[in-house]
């Protein structure tokens, strides 16, 4: 999962302080693993260096936590690209996919597109596996089946998520 | 549980005993549950209950109709008796009084309707009244039945109205004076009616005609007809109770899943059936009441009846009310025996034991044996007809045919292979489940077999009931006769009829019996008598081979039969006298009456041979042209005219009848027919036809329902077949074959069985079979039935073949 | 709009059943020999798309072209004939005539096309052999297992050498093993005859037998190949 893209995505709805970012991240994505403030700081400096964010202002009192960040045009493009690129199908993708879906909802993008794109990517791999399975020996078949079932499980979860997008949107979007 | 029991339970309560209520309470609970399913089973359940109820209702209505026939006939008879003039045949002379009236039959015909009528003349101021009449019509007045009034006032009845234009309609006859609501009947009043015109003086109505006991042959027929018509109704009710059975079984399986045991599932099914049957019973009563009102208003096949006459006999009605629900429960329980309803679905006894033939043969063969062992029934056998064993034998044969049906369908279809696709679909379907089709068709089998047998019997008895009349309708079509003897009348008939519309020719003749005068050699001898006919040369030429003839000629006519000719010659002796008043001499049986009227048969009389007149009669005796005799001198003569009409002129007969009425209202006009039908026979045949049609319609209805049901069950399959491009026509044909194959088999069996039964019955009444092809019209009816069922199921088929069926719900 | 070389294309399809909109501007195209999976959540209009493409249902609006001919202009009879001769169908269940034997079921489309029984059954048998169900030839569908029945259905759908095979959840009622086997045999057979396959499914593992997929959502279709 890309913390940088996630933080960028969170900034899309408006400039935030570093501390706000950490809180928003924890609230929405860091269910079992809260972000260290140091991680936020280092990530933000990298983004700053790459020109994806800019400092919107510094509040009195100084200190790094008092800096307010805003996303740049380049940053928005980067988030867009990230969201549109399907993840390489591999097991245990859900945290990344989940982040993407929530971010899409938060930034008024079509979350369904993300899922469709991801499914296409999964299917591409599954076709290769299916093909290999048909041509290979029993050992190949068993190995491919294992992979196929895992990919299918991911996709099933995706389908379920798609079906629940409406409900999810209600939960993540501030009313 | 056991708390409600008065006695403590003796057996220890073991773990495997059902914990729910047992015995009657379980029955009650399950029946009620079944009824709840029938009522509250959603649309599905209602449709099923409604189908059963309508089916049973139709059957019950027919049964109730049959049960009211006895009363209907009794009531009709009672009214017929009540309006019959009393004591017309009494030996005692009835004296003229204030209340006596003169009355004479004066019926007429109008097209194909018979119109009953009487002419009356009151002797005093307080005449007796026939039932339903409030005031006796005076001269120039008439009272009519409502149906006759309507007919006369309609445009169709214009000619009829003209016939009665001498009368003013002063009232209508009430129901009490009519046999049926649509009866055409009237009373005309007369100021001139005399006993000479054939009238009787009576002082009361209500003469009890010595009731003709129903001909034993007819009794056999009636028994057979009841069996033939009622067995299919019973079969139909049995089928109706099974409507929607497959769906119900599935529902019951679901109940098994939630814990109902086998027995309680059966009881629930019984409850459903019971409810359907009870509803059907109620519906049947409603149908019956509806039809009862209807037969009072409409006139189908000239059958109509007063609603109040159609009252089912209480015993029979009670029997129907009990038997229908009970048998519906029994049918359900029996039909459930063939299926095992398991929690996970319905298992039909798939091993499908092949149907066995032998026990199915026992019934029909047994029936035939009973019939073959019957004594022969003849028309003279009177009350000794063994109605019950004949009925039992015939019933066994007919019911036996019905039980043969499932075996036959199964056996016949099992051998069918290949053929075009629709045919293949149909036969395969029948191979898999022929029971339903066979059951529905068995109703047809009984009806048709019975009808074939009856018709054969009818055909063989044809001569008994339909006398071929020897009449020749090609030479004359109407025969008009009057009891009044007068030359002028004959002449007037000839003149008036000739000018009537559509008349081509008239043969008018006055005839009387004449005798040889003088003392007889032996007082016990029969006095030589012969007929004397007076007519013009043209008339005489129609009656005898006369070559030359002029007015004033006389002839002696022979038939060619030696004995008869000798008998004629004893009276007709040219140059000798005959007496024109046959009663004036009397003979060994009667006293002489009246004066002698001697007349000399001219010596110049030639002897000629007779030829049959258009009515088929051959006249012999003395033929005289009007110039040779004064017709007025003839005592006790009658006048007859034979009228030839132009068949191209519509209603020519009616014009002649009208002309006849103008001459004298009491003149009788008969239509000359090849065949004269016995009325009782005709009404039995009419009943058979009406009943057979009703039965066929019932069976068609049940076949239609099962076809529709089957189509509905295969909605998905039909949609899939449509998807891969199956033509509608292919499916339509397969529906047709599926109906046609069992019907054809059923008809085949019915015809074979019917011919056998008919032959046996004919033998029993000592007649030979005259017509082996009576079944042909019934085959046509069967074909019509197949076509109807197929046509009516097509809309549903088209609907099922729409792709909606593919959508998973 | 029609991609070059397409065998069957649809554009702007709209179809409503009463108040429910099943298709709302869907499009589709398939090349000869191509296997296209139609995916999407249930109720999204997948089956309706298939029904429209196959000429079973007429769309309220939109154009369907098969082999250069518009389906809209064809009569019901012509559509039936087209389905009989050029298309094949496999459904999830309930498509075999229960009272015919499996062999007779497979031969049925040929016989509907007017073939003689013997010839039809001979051809049918070779297809049953290919789908490895020739052992149930004389059984009725009810006596065969679900997988066998579905393979019989596949044999039947291919017996007329259709150019397009429409398969609506062909493995929907089967377990994984049987489902996989049916898919293998189906796709092998289709490829060997160069038949295009429109495969409606909600299972990705089944869709993985396709060349590409089209996703239907809320009555609109997305061709994933053209998007990616």
TrEMBL record, chain A:
Residues 7-77 form the Transcription regulator PadR N-terminal domain. It holds the Pfam family PadR. Gene3D superfamilies: Winged helix-like DNA-binding domain superfamily/Winged helix DNA-binding domain. Signal peptide: none annotated. PANTHER family: NEGATIVE TRANSCRIPTION REGULATOR PADR, TRANSCRIPTIONAL REGULATOR YQJI. Transmembrane segments: none annotated. It comes from Streptomyces flavofungini. This is PadR family transcriptional regulator.
TrEMBL record, chain C:
The keyword Nucleotide-binding applies. It comes from the Bacteria. InterPro entries: AAA+_ATPase, ABC_transporter-like_ATP-bd, ABC_transpr_LolD-like, MacB-like_ATP-bd, P-loop_NTPase. Pfam families: ABC_tran (PF00005). Keywords: ATP-binding, Nucleotide-binding, Transport. CDD domains: ABC_MJ0796_LolCDE_FtsE. Gene3D superfamilies: P-loop containing nucleotide triphosphate hydrolases. GO terms for molecular function: ATP binding. Residues 8-228 form the ABC transporter domain. This is ABC transporter ATP-binding protein.
């Amino acid at each position: 999962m890309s913390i940088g893209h996630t933080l960028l995505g969170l900034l899309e709805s408006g400039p935030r302080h570093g501390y706000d970012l950490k809180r928003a991240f924890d609230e929405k994505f860091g269910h079992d693993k809260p972000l260290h403030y140091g991680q936020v700081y280092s990530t933000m400096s990298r983004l700053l260096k790459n020109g994806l964010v800019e400092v919107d202002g510094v509040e009195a009192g100084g200190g790094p936590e008092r800096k307010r960040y805003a996303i740049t045009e380049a940053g928005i493009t980067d988030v867009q690209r990230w969201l549109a690129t399907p993840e390489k199908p591999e097991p245990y993708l859900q945290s990344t996919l989940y982040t993407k879906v929530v971010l899409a909802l938060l930034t008024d993008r079509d979350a369904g597109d993300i899922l469709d794109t991801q499914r296409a990517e999964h299917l591409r791999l599954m076709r290769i596996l299916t093909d290999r399975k048909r041509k290979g020996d029993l050992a190949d078949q068993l190995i491919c089946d294992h992979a196929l079932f895992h990919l299918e499980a991911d996709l099933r979860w995706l389908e379920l998520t798609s079906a629940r997008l409406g409900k999810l949107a209600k939960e993540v979007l501030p009313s | 549980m056991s708390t409600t029991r008065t006695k403590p339970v003796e057996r220890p309560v073991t773990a495997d005993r059902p914990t729910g209520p047992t015995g009657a309470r379980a029955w009650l609970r399950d029946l009620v549950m079944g009824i709840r399913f029938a009522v509250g089973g959603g649309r599905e359940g209602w449709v099923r209950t409604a189908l059963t109820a309508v089916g049973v209702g139709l059957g019950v209505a027919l049964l109730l109709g049959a049960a009211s026939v006895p009363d209907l006939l009794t009531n009709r008879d009672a009214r017929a008796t009540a309006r019959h003039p009393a004591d017309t045949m009494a030996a005692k002379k009835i004296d003229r009084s204030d209340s006596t009236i003169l009355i004479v039959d004066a019926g007429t015909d109008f097209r194909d309707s018979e119109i009953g009528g009487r002419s009356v003349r009151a002797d005093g101021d307080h005449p007796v009244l026939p039932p339903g009449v409030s005031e006796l019509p005076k001269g120039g007045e008439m009272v009519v039945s409502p149906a006759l009034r309507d007919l006369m006032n309609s445009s169709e009845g214009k000619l009829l109205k003209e016939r009665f234009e001498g009368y003013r309609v002063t009232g209508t006859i009430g129901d009490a004076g009519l046999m049926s609501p649509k009866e055409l009947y009237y009373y005309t009043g007369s100021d001139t009616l005399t006993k000479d015109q054939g009238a009787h003086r009576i002082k009361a109505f209500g003469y009890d005609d010595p009731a003709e006991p129903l001909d034993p042959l007819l009794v056999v027929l009636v028994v057979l007809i009841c069996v033939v018509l009622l067995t299919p109704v019973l079969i139909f009710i049995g089928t109706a109770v099974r409507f929607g059975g497959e769906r119900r079984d599935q529902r019951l399986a679901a109940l098994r899943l939630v814990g109902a045991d086998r027995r309680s599932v059966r009881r629930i099914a019984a409850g459903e059936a019971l409810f359907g049957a009870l509803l059907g019973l109620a519906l049947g009563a409603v149908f019956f009441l509806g039809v009862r009102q209807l037969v009072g208003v409409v006139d189908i096949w000239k059958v109509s009846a007063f609603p109040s006459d159609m009252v089912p006999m209480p015993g029979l009605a009670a029997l129907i009310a009990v038997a229908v629900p009970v048998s519906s429960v029994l049918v359900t329980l029996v039909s459930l025996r063939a299926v095992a309803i398991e929690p996970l679905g319905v298992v039909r006894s798939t091993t499908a034991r092949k149907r066995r033939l032998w026990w199915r043969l026992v019934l029909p063969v047994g029936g035939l044996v009973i019939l073959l062992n019957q004594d022969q029934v003849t028309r003279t056998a009177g009350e000794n007809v063994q109605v019950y064993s004949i009925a039992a034998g015939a019933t066994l044969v007919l019911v036996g045919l019905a039980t043969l049906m499932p075996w036959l369908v199964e056996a016949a279809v099992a051998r069918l292979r290949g053929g075009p696709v629709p045919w293949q679909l149909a036969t395969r379907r029948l191979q898999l489940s022929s029971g339903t089709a066979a059951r529905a068709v068995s109703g047809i089998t009984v009806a048709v077999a019975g009808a074939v047998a009856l018709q054969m019997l009818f055909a063989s008895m044809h001569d008994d009931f339909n006398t071929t009349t020897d009449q020749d309708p090609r030479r004359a079509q109407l025969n008009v006769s009057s009891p009044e003897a007068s030359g002028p009348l004959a002449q007037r008939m000839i003149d008036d009829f000739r000018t009537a519309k559509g008349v081509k020719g008239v043969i008018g003749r006055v005839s009387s019996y004449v005798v040889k005068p003088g003392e007889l050699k032996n007082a016990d001898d029969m006095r030589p008598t012969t007929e004397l006919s007076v007519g013009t040369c043209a008339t005489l030429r129609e009656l005898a081979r006369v070559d030359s003839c002029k007015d004033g000629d006389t002839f002696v006519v022979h038939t060619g039969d030696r004995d008869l000719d000798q008998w004629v010659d004893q009276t007709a002796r040219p140059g000798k006298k005959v007496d024109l008043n046959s009663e004036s001499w009397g003979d060994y049986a009667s006293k002489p009456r009246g004066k002698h009227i001697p007349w000399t048969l001219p010596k110049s009389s030639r002897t000629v041979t007779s030829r049959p007149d258009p009515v088929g009669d051959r006249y012999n005796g003395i033929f005289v042209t009007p110039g040779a005799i004064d017709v007025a001198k003839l005592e006790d003569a009658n006048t007859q005219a034979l009228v030839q009409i132009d068949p191209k002129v519509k209603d020519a007969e009616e014009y002649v009848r009208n002309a006849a009425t103008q001459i004298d209202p009491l003149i009788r006009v008969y239509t000359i027919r090849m065949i004269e039908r016995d009325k009782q026979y005709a009404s039995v045949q009419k009943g058979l036809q009406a009943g057979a049609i009703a039965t066929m319609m019932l069976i068609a209805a049940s076949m239609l329902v099962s076809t529709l049901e089957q189509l509905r069950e295969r909605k998905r399959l039909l949609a899939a077949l449509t998807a891969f491009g199956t033509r509608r026509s292919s499916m339509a044909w397969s529906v047709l074959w599926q109906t046609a194959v069992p019907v054809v088999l059923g008809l085949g069996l019915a015809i074979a069985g019917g011919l056998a039964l008919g032959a046996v019955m004919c033998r029993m009444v000592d007649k030979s079979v005259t017509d082996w092809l009576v079944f042909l019209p019934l085959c046509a009816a069967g074909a019509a039935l197949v076509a109807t069922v197929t046509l009516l199921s097509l809309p549903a088929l088209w609907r099922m073949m729409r792709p909606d069926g593919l959508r998973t719900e | 709009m029609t991609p070059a070389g397409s065998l069957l294309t649809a554009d702007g399809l709209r179809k409503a059943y009463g108040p429910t909109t099943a298709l709302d501007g869907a499009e589709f195209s398939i090349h000869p020999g191509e296997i296209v999976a139609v995916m999407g959540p249930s109720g999204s209009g997948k089956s309706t798309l298939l029904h429209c493409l196959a000429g079973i249902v007429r769309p309220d609006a939109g154009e369907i072209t098969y082999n250069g001919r518009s389906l809209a202009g064809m009569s019901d009879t012509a559509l039936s004939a087209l389905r009989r001769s050029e298309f094949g169908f496999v459904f999830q269940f309930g498509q075999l005539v229960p009272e015919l034997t499996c062999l007779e079921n497979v031969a049925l489309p040929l016989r509907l096309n007017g073939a003689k029984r013997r010839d039809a059954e001979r051809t049918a048998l070779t297809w049953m052999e290919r789908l490895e169900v020739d052992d149930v030839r004389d059984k009725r569908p009810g006596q065969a297992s679900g997988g066998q029945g579905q393979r019989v259905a596949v044999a039947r759908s291919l017996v007329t050498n259709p150019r397009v095979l429409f398969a609506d959840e062909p493995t929907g009622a089967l377990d994984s093993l049987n489902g996989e086997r049916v898919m293998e045999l189906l796709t092998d057979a289709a490829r060997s005859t160069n038949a295009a396959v429109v495969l409606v499914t909600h299972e990705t593992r089944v869709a993985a037998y396709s060349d590409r997929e089209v996703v239907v959502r809320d009555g609109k279709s997305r061709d994933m190949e053209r998007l990616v």
